[in-house]
Amino acid sequence: VERTLVLVKPDGVRRGLSGEVLRRIEAKGYSLVAVELKQATTELLAAHYAEHEGKPFYQPLVDFMLSGPALAVVAEGQGVIPGFRSLAGATNPTEAAPGTIRGDLGRDWGLKVQQNLVHGSDSPESAAREIGLWFPNL
Ligand code: GTP
Ligand code: MG
Fold first, then answer.
1. Which whole number is the average pLDDT over 52-68?
2. ipTM above 0.90, yes or no
3. Using CA positions, which residue lies closest to atom 12 of ligand 1?
4. Which residue from 7, 9, 67, 115 puts its CA 20 to 30 A from 87's CA?
């Protein structure tokens, strides 16, 4: 079965929304395979966000992701990779539809689009790579 990596980013953990994100994943019918509160390191984030290196938002994004622990989750189920991205909603919380995690719970904090509560892998290749980074023992 398909697996994806979900992160409740530091803003979501700080706001006490970890349980709400897990609730939505489970309510949709996906299974939790692994859940761990984890403080990211610069090395982990450099690998995780390699595709964004050099973009103007890269360093602010990494700094934000280092600002506190994230809840790392491996979720499993048919179609879970696109399925979780549809639960998450559009990248910018202001544009994300109501009913989605970012649309219901996120808002625009000035220019800080990176504070959009969650991450979800965007392809089977990304999912395999990201699960390996966040859960090397899985
Ligand atoms: P993830 O599930 O977190 O990967 O989000 P995504 O796939 O919707 O977005 P993408 O992979 O393109 O970007 C990764 C993360 O970088 C986003 O979730 C945002 O936190 C941040 N980000 C992306 N684009 C911008 C931007 O234009 N400005 C800022 N400040 N942050 C951005
Ligand atoms: Mg992405």
1. 95
2. no
3. 91
4. 67
Which residues are part of a known binding site for ATP? 9, 57, 85, 91, 102, 116
Q: Whose CA is nearest to atom 10 of ligand 1?
A: 91
Q: Where are the domains of the chain?
A: 3-134
**Residue 21: is it exposed, middle or buried by C-beta count within 10 angstroms (0-12/13-18/19+)?**
buried
State the distance from the centre of ligand 1 to the C-alpha of 33, rounded, in angstroms. 25
Pocket mutation for ligand 1, best pick of 84, 87, 114 (most atoms within 8 Å of C-beta): 114
Could you tell me the pTM of the whole model?
0.94
Question: Domain 3-134 belongs to what topology?
Answer: Alpha-Beta Plaits (3.30.70)
pLDDT (tens digit per residue) in 69-92: 999 999 999 999 999 999 999 999
Q: Is 64 in the pocket of ligand 1 (CB under 6 A)?
A: no
